[in-house]
Amino acid sequence: DSQITEPKLILEALHNRLMEQLKSEGSDSIDDGLDLIVVLQNKKEKTLKYSSAKFLAHLVKKSELIPLDCDMQSIGNSALLRRRNPKPINMTTFKLHYENNDMLYLSSDGYIDQFNSAKEKYNLGRYRQLISSISEKKITDQKETVALEFDLWKGDSEQIDDVILIGLILK
Questions:
Q1: Which of the listed ranges 28-37, 69-78, 113-122 does the model predict with the highest average pLDDT?
Q2: The pTM is what?
Q3: Residue 112 in contact with residue 56, Cβ under 8 Å?
């Protein structure tokens, strides 16, 4: 299995191994899943092949924000999916072309699901506006803006989930 290079097959193998491990430990009733993405870059062809298990991905090309497709299923034992639909997981590999200096943003749902003091979620629309507005800034300035925006939004509210946001300049 260590020779797998197709993104969808990597996620499917990870899911199968995780489910086997949970079952062998008697933990197969755990109601949790893992949202993640596998991205393979071919610099020569300027292509990305990826497979996404509910992980947010956006490409910014010349100031145009392009939401990337994903499969709406998690890896692991997501109760809703696994109990209602016990068939094997089937992920998708997507392929896209990029140009030098395009920005790729990968994010968990923790940022968009964060509540403020008024009990409002940050939401996907606000998130997309944020990454559109920062995409042409220096990467260090982007990091600072994203962190400040999150802290201002969250205020005194408790952080409800992990927050992962990765911005990559594609070459």
A1: 113-122
A2: 0.89
A3: yes
Q: How many CB atoms lie within 10 A of CB 21?
A: 12
Nearest to 34 by CA among 55, 48, 63, 3: 55
Helix, strand or coil for residue 34? Answer: strand
CA distance 109 to 35: 9
Instruction: Answer yes or no: are the C-beta atoms of 40 and 48 closer than 8 Å.
Output: yes
With a CB cutoff of 8 Å and minimum separation 6, the contacts of 165 are 105, 106, 107, 108, 111, 146
| pLDDT single digits (tens) 105-133 | 999 999 999 999 999 999 999 999 999 99
- Model confidence at 154, pLDDT cuts 50, 70, 90, reads very high
Q: Closest Cα partner for 89 from 122, 51, 125, 123? A: 51
Query: By C-alpha distance, which of 33, 11, 35 is closest to 82?
Result: 33
